[in-house]
Amino acid sequence: MCGIIGYKGTENAPEVIFNGLKRLEYRGYDSWGMATANGSGLDIVKQEGELEPSKTTEESNIGIGHNRWATHGKVSKTNAHPHVSCDNRFAVVHNGIIENWKELKEELNGHEYVSGTDSEVIVHFIEEKTGTETVEEAIRDFLNSAKGSFAVGLLDSKEKNLFAFKRGSPLALGVDGEGIFFGSDIYAFSGYTNESLFLEDNEYVVIENGGFVLKDVSGKRIQRKTRKFEWKEEEIDQKEFDHHMIKEIKSIPRTIQKLRTSLHSEQRESLKELKNLIQEHEKVIFTASGTSYHASLLGVFLLQKAGVEAQTLIASEFENYERADENTLVVAVSQSGETKDVLDAIEHSKGKGATIASIVNVPHSSIERKSTVSVRVKAGQEICVAATKTFANQVALFLELARETGIDLKTSELAEKISETIEKNEGKAKKLAKELKDKKDIYIIGRGPAYPVAREIALKLKEIAYIHAEGMMGGELKHGTLALIEEGTPVISLIPENSSEIESNVKEVEARGANSIRIASSGDFEVPECTPEEFTFLATVIGFLLTYYTAKEKGLPVDKPRNLAKSVTVR
Ligand code: M6R
Q: Among residues 247, 315, 381, 398, which is most buried (max CB within 10 A)?
């Protein structure tokens, strides 16, 4: 969480930084800030809430910026980054958590702290050490002393230089003929250049005199070539739609087609390699968080059908349950490719000798770079914090993977059926949203492949519509949850064709007076004739539409729900 950016070059830095922060906004939107260097020292701007173009610093050609997702210290202007040294020479932006900030603070002498953040200690550390050391030595000292995860940008207003260093949090460098950028990911500067390289842990970069030098913690120069990345950026302003979420839901038929084309062309080899790795390993464990976890549940369901013994574990609990060894394949599933819990699960498994593969959306992400084989879901940039089109593409990728392992799945008209489902049900979703908006609890039930979809719809209702929701296996109702069903309680049932088992669960809730909402071939929401696998997509888009219109009806900030961020880079 949190996004950082830095720039030194011939362009106007406040503008470059502001544009980068806009693109990084999905990483945190509690507050933002920037620091630039002018003739007399630092120029600082900090704001709570939304980015405002009129509030940037004065013209300059060097600066750093930050979008905050609060961890240590409440949301406030004072806690917004950049943080500044007592002598006003240095400014720092930070993504991550400095675990030993208290100990570091105690070791420093006579500094005035103004914020309640862990990050502020970094700038005072650099300030104190540069009393006797060079800035580079101070950075190396910090890398040797700090515990935790960090990607830090440092502006030295005296020498007009930029530095960036990292451990555990992502940091990319962007290069064009006119300037050098750093950022939490390639989006930070993708509007300016597509030439980039990624820093590894315990490395730092010095940006000065129109160039950059990459070094390791001992100060040794590292030679690493920049690479061109291909990444079509989405419009940051979603002109013809009210929100990114609805734009992204409606793009699902197109993004699925794009993925399929790539799996039959440039991604053909990596899909085959992934299939081979799955078949060669004794144990296959998927790991993921949130929506990606729900996609992996579907993946496991499909692979089990194909005779592959696979399981999936929530990444944050991975270490508590798994028994990975050198005969294990761990497949990480992640939209951002930067989720800390997933990265920790990968590191842990690598330590045990496991092979790592991944399924990601953001190209060149940390998870992709740590994998032996990685297949991209090719959904393009997703701006709404809620994952919608990327979930659909993750599931579509699992379908292709299962097909590759030999099972016969009929989904050739999937994209058309999704479009038809959206067209037929959008009006109904708008209408029902008016009723659901005042509800406190909603239950969603499904069986087999519809069960992960039930969980996914529930997650969306919580995240975007702020309604408590529970997605569960229909058969589990009678073991407890049925006690909560009373007159008018909304229960959304996912009913694929010929599924008598879920029908009896629907009867159970209807007998208790539930407000029964059916997603079926004939029901409150209607899907076209389809296979059970296709049904998972059709029920998903209906659930997404319903969530979107309920949140909209409530007047909520659909694309940026409270307390959340798209890329979760803390444990
Ligand atoms: O980037 P990842 O797929 O690893 O992210 C995992 C979760 O944080 C993410 O899916 C989250 O649950 C979404 N905001 C849900 O819409």
A: 315
End-of-domain residue from the set 359, 390, 409: 409
Cα–Cα distance measured from residue 458 to residue 398, given in angstroms and rounded to the nearest whole number:
21
Q: Does residue 234 sit within a domain?
A: no
3 state SS of 381: coil
Q: Give the Å distance between the CA of 558 and the centre of ligand 1.
A: 15
CA of 169 to the centre of ligand 1 (A): 17
Measure the CA–CA gap between 504 and 478, rounded to whole angstroms. 11
Q: Are 13 and 112 contained in the same domain?
A: yes
* pLDDT tens-place string over residues 387-416: 999 999 999 999 999 999 988 888 889 999
- Residue to mutate (ligand 1; options 184, 292, 341; most atoms within 8 A of CB): 292
Q: Which residue has the least CA distance to atom 11 on ligand 1?
A: 290
Q: How many domains does the chain have?
A: 3
What six digits make up the tokens of 293?
């976890």
Q: Which domain holds residue 365?
A: 239-409
Please check whether residue 252 is in contact with residue 426, taking contact to mean a CB–CB distance below 8 angstroms: no
Which residue among 170, 200, 228 closes a domain?
A: 228
Ligand 1 centroid distance, CA of 393 (Å)? 14
Two tokens at 236? 């940051």
